[in-house]
Amino acid sequence: MYKNLKNKVHTYSVVALFCMIFNFQLSAQDITLKINLSGVYESKISLMPLIGPNALKSIAEIASVKNGESGTISVSKDMLPAEFVLRFDYKEKETSTPYPSEKSIFINNQNLELWVKPMYSSNNDSTYFQKDEKENTLFAKFTKENGKQKEKLGLLQNFLMNYDTPLSKFYQQGIEEYEKRRGEYNQWLKELSTQHNELFVSHTFQFQYVPQISFKGSETDRIQSVIAHYFDGINFNDSLLINTANLKEWMNSYVNLFGSLSKTLAMRDSLFPLAGKTAIEKARLGNRKVYGWMVDYFFKGYESFNMTAGIKMLEPYINDTNCLTSKRQAIEKRLTGMKTLLTGTLAPDLTIKDDEGNDVLFSAYKTKSPYKLILFWSADCDHCKKLVKELYPWYQELSNKNLVDIFALSLDETETEIPIWQDAIIKLPGWKHQRCEGGINSKEANAYFILSTPVMILVDSKTNKI
Predict the structure, then answer these.
(1) Collapsed DSSP state (helix, strand, coil) of residue 44
(2) What b/e sequence results for 433-458 when a residue is b if at least 16 CB atoms lie within 10 Å of its CB, and e otherwise?
(3) Beta strands in 291-400 (DSSP E)
(4) Angle at 449 (CA atoms; ends 443, 452), nearest 5 degrees
(5) DSSP designation for 420
(6) Which residues contact 254 (CB under 8 A, 6 or more apart)?
(7) Phi and psi at residue 462, in whole multiples of 5°?
(8) Is 458 in a helix, a strand, or coil?
(9) What kind and span of H or E run contains 107?
């Protein structure tokens, strides 16, 4: 009996020790955000990341915090460091309709406490962190000082861009003064980033770098000058770049410079692959994750514009084992699929619903229309909304209704997306609507190598060929 009791005690001790270790690991992984609410009757509080697969989707919520009370949100260490949006759906009075307000915050490795009045969430006098808070405090100080510094440069740049006598000595003096101040500003950024390197927010300062610009020549010459020096101030060895919300915005500005040079579609299809190749070649010399992020970024862009030349340009980078892209396998699949989904080839079959709600093969669907149009879309996708806004009025014309049957295959799958889709299709009668289980990973999307929306495939009704 004593032996059995001893074994049980030993077992309980092991279990207790395991629970202690497990709980410690959980607490070590989580960062807490305590929110003290005031100034309103009550508020729902949501936390949304700005990057990643859950970007701008709530990852944590507190259903209700009343005036004078507090609520705590835990954030997994796996998601950090990162920038988030803290959303308040508040009621000013008990009978009021909820009204939204938002505050952007940085979360790294420090537990946070925030005192907030949702009606004044952007006012530092009404909404503030504990005294020893680091990330958001530094960002507020930087934003204030950076505005002063940039204002001086902006005045000089505006003068140099608009002065009507560029060959004068006075204009040359203006260029020299601008370059002097630009150098001082960029050096200030560098020193500040180095001084606060242990804080995540300091890694965002480099996006403010002002590249060299040639004020001589045409507007095109100036744009090309900015492009040539766009990456001068960025540290591609910094793996935390991909945790920032700024990186995508910064790259969008870079691509837009090429867009401003594109006067025709042919030029666009030539310049955008060049933009991608130039940026990726810079990034591949740095951190592998940043290199992979850059390939992902351009892949998504080329996919949205259905830019075959751009996707093909990415192929050698996909085959580079040093490229840590999350889209590696997907791009390989897309490249393979592009070789099979050609005009004149049979459209991959899939199961759809006929007018009576029965399952039928797409190839066997009977119609008097000469064409069948497959539309992969998402009701929560801005590009899709724009397309549908143009396509549906076109379809409503009698001659076009007789010309084509439209099969709208939705890739909406989240709890937020599905209700939006259900509301949207009510306004689109006449189309054959179906939601693909699994979204982008559904068997329907896989059959057509779909990785983004919208995508349309026009099929001959008689031959079932693309």
Answers:
(1) strand
(2) bbbbeebbebebbbebbbbbbbbebe
(3) 351-353, 359-361, 371-377
(4) 100
(5) H
(6) 227, 230, 275, 279
(7) -75, -45
(8) strand
(9) strand 99-107
Pairwise CA distance, residues 289 & 236, whole Å: 10
Concatenating the DSSP letter of every residue in 25-52 gives HHHHHEEEEEEEE-SSSEEEEEEEESSS
Report residue 270's pLDDT band, with 50, 70 and 90 as the boundaries. Answer: very high
The helix/strand/coil state of 214 is coil
In the chain, pLDDT over 90 holds for what percent of residues?
A: 65
Are 18 and 28 within 8 A, CB to CB?
A: no
Entry pTM: 0.67
Instruction: Tell me the CA distances in angstroms from 318 to 271, 275, 299, 309, one per residue in order.
Output: 21, 17, 10, 15
pLDDT at 327: 61
User: Which one, of 223, 251, 256, 226, lies nearest residue 236 by Cα?
Assistant: 251
Q: How far is CA 411 from the centre of its chain?
A: 18
Q: Are 77 and 31 in contact (CB under 8 A)?
A: yes
Alpha carbon distance 58, 89 (integer Å): 13
- The whole-number pLDDT of residue 27 equals 39
- Cα(392)–Cα(422) distance, integer angstroms: 17
* Cα dihedral 276, 281, 282, 284 in deg (nearest 10): 120
232: Cα separation from own chain's centroid? 24
**Rounded Cα–Cα distance for residues 312 and 298 (Å):** 11
Smallest CA-to-CA distance from 43 within 96, 111, 108 is with 96
Q: Which residues make Cβ contacts (< 8 Å) with residue 39, sequence separation at least 6?
A: 67, 117, 118, 119, 120, 126
